[in-house]
Amino acid sequence: MSYKIVFTERYTRIAARFLQRHPDMARAYVKTLALLEVNPQHPSLRLHALGGRLVGVHSVSINLSYRITIHLLITEREIVPLDLGDHDAVY
């Protein structure tokens, strides 16, 4: 059973800016989203819960430098991307 990624208007703007600045990351970004829909627990995503002010938010890795923070709604099988960028930008 797969998940549904629900894109907000805010996130869509963030992603567009990110891909404009980092066009070389487009393929890895799309691959990350595809894996996330099929299996959020896939080892290459390095899914983990965040703490502190980001309690209730999870993070997945696009690569060693870039992350996507998400709300993972298990009961509704939905994933809502929140932010995208390097470690310092999203945490």
- Mean pLDDT, to the nearest integer, reads 92
CA-atom Rg in angstroms: 12 Å
Distance between the termini: 30 Å
Q: What are the secondary-structure elements, in order, as H or E?
A: EHHEEEEH
Q: Tell me the fraction of residues in β-strands, as a range.
A: 25-35%
Helical residue percent band: 25-40%
Count of domains = 1
CATH architecture: 2-Layer Sandwich
Morphology call: globular
Largest sheet: 5 strands, mixed
How is the CATH topology named?
YaeB-like fold
Query: Which CATH class is shown?
Result: Alpha Beta
Strand order of the largest sheet: 1-5-4-3-2
The number of helical segments is: 3
Task: List the main descriptive attributes of the protein structure presented here.
single chain; about 90 residues; alpha+beta; YaeB-like fold; 5-stranded mixed sheet; 3 helices
Give a description of the structure.
By secondary structure, this protein is α+β, with helices and mostly antiparallel strands. It has a single domain (4-90), classed as 2-Layer Sandwich (YaeB-like fold), CATH 3.30.2310.20. It has helices at 9-21, 26-38, 87-90; strands spanning 4-5, 48-49, 58-61, 66-73, 78-86. It has a 5-stranded mixed beta sheet with strand order 1-5-4-3-2. A hairpin with a 4-residue loop joins strand 4 (66-73) and strand 5. The chain is globular and about 35 Å long. The termini are far apart. The mean pLDDT is 92.
